Amino acid sequence: MENGVVRENGAAAIVFSDEEVREMSGLKRGDDYVEVTCGCTSHRYGDAVGRLRVFVSGDLEICCECTPGCHEDKMTPCCI
């Protein structure tokens, strides 16, 4: 991914433009996703830090970082 563009089979698909994400801190771009550090609230564990990953396919994934050793990883929004 380069400048918010994902290349699939030689075609380009825009996920988020540079303008849309320029003020976001903790942003990471992968080959098929963008990821941002955020706060999340679990109905079981309360407020915590996490990472929200948005895939080109539209899928969302949340990785909890509430405490060291937490086994709640790669949750979907319905789990929160």
UniProtKB/TrEMBL annotation:
Pfam families: SAND_ULT1. InterPro entries: Developmental_reg_ULTRAPETALA (IPR020533), ULT1/2_SAND (IPR057011). GO terms for cellular component: cytosol; nucleus. It comes from the Eukaryota. Signal peptide: none annotated. Residues 24-77 form the ULTRAPETALA1/2 SAND domain. This is ULTRAPETALA1/2 SAND domain-containing protein. It comes from Nyssa sinensis.
